[in-house]
Amino acid sequence: MSLGANIKAIREAKGQTQETVAEQMGVSFQAVSSWERDEYKPDVDKLIKLAEHFGVSVSRLVEEKYGTFKTKDAIYDWEHMKTYVKATAKTLKLTNTLSAVDYAVEAHQGQHRKNTDVPYIYHPLNLACHALSMNITEDEVLAACLLHDVIEDCGKKKNDLPVNEETKELVRLLTHEKTTDTNRDEIMTAYFNAIAKNPKASLIKCLDRCNNLTTMSWGLKLDRIYRMIHETEKYFPALLNVLKKTPEYNNAAWLLRYQMESMLDIYKRLV
Questions:
Q1: Where are the alpha helices (DSSP H) in 69-196?
Q2: Residue 37: domain span
Q3: Is 9 among the domain residues?
Q4: Long-range contacts of residues 218-224, Cβ cutoff 8 Å, at least 24 apart
Q5: 164 and 58 co-located in one domain
Q6: What percent of the chain has a predicted confidence (pLDDT) above 70?
Q7: Is residue 71 part of a domain?
Q8: Which of 31-40, 62-71, 210-219 is the least confident region?
Q9: Quick one: pLDDT band at residue 56, thresholds 50, 70, 90?
Q10: If you ran DSSP here, which 8-state letter would residue 135 be given?
């Protein structure tokens, strides 16, 4: 595909009009239209600004093979995952997990993953299924996987969660206050240090990061992708080391490290 065809494809994928892009670029919509028809090419400054606006690399804009492959926002249907988690929880008599499933679905109702139409509940259910795939069947871990975002993103209170005290504490540990550019490093350092003191919280946070890494290419702008890469390299080796030293999570530590490092290497090469 040509540069113009790429600009048009990415703009439409982002759900933006030519007028919206023109306003952000400081040009007329006719200029954007001429770029998309390959009548004119944006200068270097505008090309860089376009990439920043769309949250992609400049190479993605100019790549001739962009759009060759079809992609999916979600691989598994969330309702199928919910049925699987509930059936497993019933079989194993995991009372906290059973209570957490429906609570999480209701709490996240109407929410979507960033920049997509994928229901947000896909994310916590994915964490629970990921844990089960590694033969982790601890009730508190699975329940906290399902509830890990309900305080931070849904306005729920710790004491209102329909689970035992250990699960509530895990959800609290996995919740951090809102950050700004000036206080983010301080808040996140304290947040990850607290998580590292609890192997179960460390496990859930690693599951969370693995899922977020696999979806950040379509959910985050380029600056957020860079931040995700840097923070993963900064904070997660310590959490993985906690898992490695915890006998019941030793195998999971290896698998999670492999997935994280593989995803990071792929992103670094592409961006």
A1: 78-92, 95-107, 122-133, 139-147, 150-154, 165-173, 184-195
A2: 3-62
A3: yes
A4: 218/71, 218/73, 218/115, 218/116, 219/113, 219/114, 219/115, 219/116, 220/55, 220/114, 220/115, 221/52, 221/54, 221/55, 222/51, 222/52, 222/55, 222/56, 222/57, 222/271, 223/52, 223/55, 224/55
A5: no
A6: 95
A7: no
A8: 62-71
A9: confident
A10: T
> pLDDT (tens digit, 9 = 90+) per residue, 244-269?
999 999 999 999 999 999 999 998 88
C-beta of residue 40 within 8 angstroms of C-beta of residue 31:
yes
The encoded tokens of residue 65 equal 């093979």
Are 127 and 200 found together in one domain?
Answer: yes
| Contact of 73 with 141, CB cutoff 8 Å | no
Residues 28 and 100 in one domain: no
pTM of this structure: 0.80
Residue 74: what pLDDT?
67
pLDDT at 67: 57
Q: 54 and 157: one domain?
A: no
Query: Which domain CATH number covers 57?
Result: 1.10.260.40
91 part of a folded domain: yes
Are the beta carbons of 204 and 39 closer than 8 angstroms?
Answer: no
Query: Using CA atoms, how far apart are residues 92 and 63, in angstroms rounded to an integer?
Result: 50
Q: How confident is the model at residue 217 (pLDDT cuts 50, 70, 90)?
A: confident
